[in-house]
Design a protein that fits this description.
about 150 residues, alpha+beta, 3-stranded antiparallel β-sheet, 1 helix, 7 strands, about 30% helix
């Protein structure tokens, strides 16, 4: 038995390498297919959200600040000029940088505005807050609009 050697034959070794290579290719293909499908679904969802956000546009069409009994009464009207209804919670209001969203009447956090419609919003400052020059900012999904007010 001089010519015999221990181990596997060359033919069996080649077959095992081919089987391992095919298995690795199958695993890589399944992983990449799952990854690409997930990315496509996520991209479609992001595109849809972006399109809806782009359709939510608001402008301030009227604003007025009046000083009554040592309090500034601020009244403003918003119009939805977008192509999608603005849902409650989509808008935030700021007066001189302070978030007044929940303090407006009606509460801007609970107000929706249908496409083309307007909403009248009111806000009263704290007693003694009679600052003459104000900045009103309305922030929405697409950006913000800002308007300067002079209280009289």
């Amino acid at each position: 038995m001089k010519g015999s050697s221990k181990g596997i034959s060359t033919v069996i070794a080649v077959i095992m390498i081919v089987v391992i290579a095919v298995a690795l290719v199958g695993i890589l293909w399944a992983w990449s297919t799952t990854m690409v499908t997930g990315m496509q679904a996520g991209g479609s969802q992001q595109a849809q959200q972006l399109q809806q956000s782009a359709g939510k546009q608001v402008i301030i069409i009227n604003s007025k600040c009046t000083n009554v009994s040592n309090v500034n009464a601020i009244n403003f009207t918003l119009r939805n000029i977008g192509t999608v209804d603005i849902e409650p919670g989509d808008l935030r209001a700021f007066l001189d940088g302070e978030d007044i969203t929940a303090k407006t009447t009606p509460s801007l956090s609970a107000v929706g505005i249908k496409t083309g419609e307007t909403k009248n919003i009111n806000y009263q400052t704290a007693p003694g807050d009679t600052k003459v020059t104000r900045t009103l900012r309305i922030a929405g999904p697409l950006g913000a609009v800002e308007e300067g007010l002079t209280c009289s």
